[in-house]
Amino acid sequence: MSEVANIYRITQPREYQKKFLEAGVRSDGRKLDEFREALIGIGPVSTADGSALVALGETKVICGIKLEVAPPKVDKPRCGYIVPNVDLPPLASSDFRPGPPSELAQVSSQLMLEIVLKSKCVLLEDLCIAEGRMCWVLYCDLICLNYDGNLLDACTMALTAALCNVKLPKAFVNEETGAIEIDFKQKVPLNIRSRPVATTSSVFEKETLYVDPVREELKHASLTVTVVTSNEISGSTVDSDNICVIHKTGGGSVNEEQIEQCISNGRCHTPFVLSLIGSALTKSEV
């Protein structure tokens, strides 16, 4: 980038983005419908019960899952718990501040839970050990290591891959004593019923729609729409295309054509992400 162009980018960032988008390209050289390179590593945290590291361009998120046992809720005696928590430390970006969780962190944490439940990735009933007595609790910590936009897509990838990496110790009720016993030497994979995939698109000045926005693009976007597909696992195959969550941020309005384009982007992108997760899981088992 020339010195003049860099000064223009810094002093007139919105106009800088607009010039590129009017030409049908992005400031980083991508097409409007082009995603950044994504990489997934399985099991990077040896002390976790399941973990994954995702790099979506320069956005990097690591997810670690820890297991605990606890009594179930009185009104849901056959259900366990899933507790996602998204952490956005200041070291990841100058946009983040120390202190209590920001609104973005809280909304992201809640959305991760909604995605897991609505996609039926993990059924809470599958976490039951003994009805009304004991169940599994999955604490899912997602930490942003570096932020360059599109946090939700990266978090969803990391959480899905980490859940696929979880193995539950064998838990049973001792018939003689009635006590609940856990055998940590015998483990079985967590029952993953679907693999959700999130695809985020942004709209610039209510007209130009583009996928996988970076940090600078998000600052000037009118709104963003995240479409999540629920991809049920049937044997060794994955049935995709079911839309389970649509999440919008920003104060702008979105028309029907743009919503349809966002859904189309999600459906087109889903097979690639599923293949990426599948390949990473296969490599981790070798």
3D structure, described in words:
This protein is an alpha+beta fold. The mean pLDDT is 90. The chain contains 6 helices and 12 strands. Helix 1 crosses helix 2 (13-22), helix 3 crosses helix 4 and helix 4 packs parallel to helix 6 (256-285).
Contiguous low-pLDDT stretches (5 residues minimum) are none
Rg measurement, Å: 21 Å
| Strands, count | 12
- Chain oligomer state: single chain
Number of helices: 6
Name the beta content range: 35-45%
| Helix percent band | 25-40%
Mean pLDDT: 90
Q: How does the overall form come out from the CA principal axes?
A: elongated
H and E string: HHEEEEHEEHEEEEHEEH
* Ends distance: 43 Å
Structure class? alpha+beta
Q: Characterize the biggest β-sheet.
A: 6 strands, mixed
